[in-house]
Amino acid sequence: MPGFFSKEALVARPGTSRWWVAPAALAIHLSIGQAYAFSVFNLPLQNAGGWKLSELGWVFTCAIASLGLSAALFGQWLERVGPRVSGLTAAACFSSGLFIAALGASLKLLPLLIVGYGLIGGIGLGLGYITPVSTLIKWFPDRRGMATGIAIMGFGGGAIIAAPLSRLLMKHLSLPATFAALGVIYLVLMTAGALGFRTPPPGFAPKGTPPAPAEPQGFTPAEAVRTRPFWLLWVVLCVNVTAGIGVLGQASAMIQEVFKGAVDPDGAATFVSALSASNMVGRFVWASLSDRLGRKVTYGIFFSLGPVLYFAVPLCGAAGSTAAFVACFCVILTMYGGGFATIPAYLSDLFGTRFVSAIHGRLLTAWSVAGVLGPVIVNYVREYQIASGVPKADAYDVTMRLMAGLLVVGFIANVMVRKPSRDFSRPDGMMPA
């Protein structure tokens, strides 16, 4: 690959500050974080096209599924071509998805929305999500958790910007024009981020630390997926995401039904914003703490405190304590976001940094599964409870207990994680091909 797009052209000059990479990573993750704000389009799309909300839900579901699958499929390609090419490809796919969604909204064709935003845009989400990870980890070998927290914090907080921006655009533009305008905005931001990436020179070490030794071979993606620790971490990520994403999808309806008459739509919107802020802050705080506590201990906290909070939620609802209800979910969402931000550092600790983006991409298939499983559990258990005569205010109690049970499974999986080996005779060695 010639000149400007080659990996060699990305190597930074000696003395380059590693902090210049952080804004590039944030530019991409704040852009693709728009996905968490897609729900602001649900009612306008329903009114414009006459679709059911359950039908429109497939747009977001396909986007999350495509995110995980594309991250798995293209992770090794990213390591081969470098973050500039991968970042530019992510920008092209994500913005194209928004442009096609604009066409789908204009022609009132739901399949175009699903193919555009859900499939093509979803590929942009996947590539954009994993592109900054290995670059930041290589620049911050001494603070891997904090480094990935910086970037992935942007994905959690992107909705805080995208939701009001989308509402503002819809006040002045048609729905298709709003999608197109967002496509242009995010194309510019993501392109700027991709062009800002640099990789550290060979032997790079932060000031005050000895020169880095030659990087060990580490595990290739194919080798990593043949180890028990990889699949244990797959379970860890899947259950943590399932528990959190189900809440995010029904947060507004949930608090209004549990506190019927006491919380209006504006109050529910504030609750959703608080959850988004908690999700964002948790990504940076927990990932940074994991550098001190260790990854296993950090996840151990998630899976110990999480079940307690999920069991406490119905009690808060029964007691009529809105403040306690909100506080429980805000803490839960910090751990949901922290789980995303800590997992790349966990992987690099176990499998090395050389192929961490590719290995991370394969692990993100857990997100694809959780993106379907979480909303299904919350929505269908709720509907079954209501159909059985349970009041709406109590319809989420069983769901909360199920989520607590899932986190216990995650606790067990996390405890079983050990440093992998290539020795077939060891319990955590690779499985024979």
Write the layout of secondary structure elements.
Layout: H1 21-32, H2 42-49, H3 53-81, H4 83-107, H5 110-139, H6 144-172, H7 175-195, H8 221-224, H9 228-258, H10 265-293, H11 295-319, H12 322-351, H13 356-363, H14 365-387, H15 397-415
Helix pairs in contact: 1-5, 1-6, 1-7, 3-4, 3-5, 3-13, 3-14, 4-5, 4-7, 5-6, 5-13, 6-10, 6-12, 9-10, 9-12, 9-14, 9-15, 10-11, 10-12, 11-12, 11-15, 12-13
* CATH structural class of the largest domain: Mainly Alpha
Helix and strand pattern: HHHHHHHHHHHHHHH
Quaternary status: single chain
Look at the structure and name the CATH superfamily of the largest domain: MFS general substrate transporter like domains
**Main sheet: strands, sense, barrel:** none
- Overall number of structural domains: 2
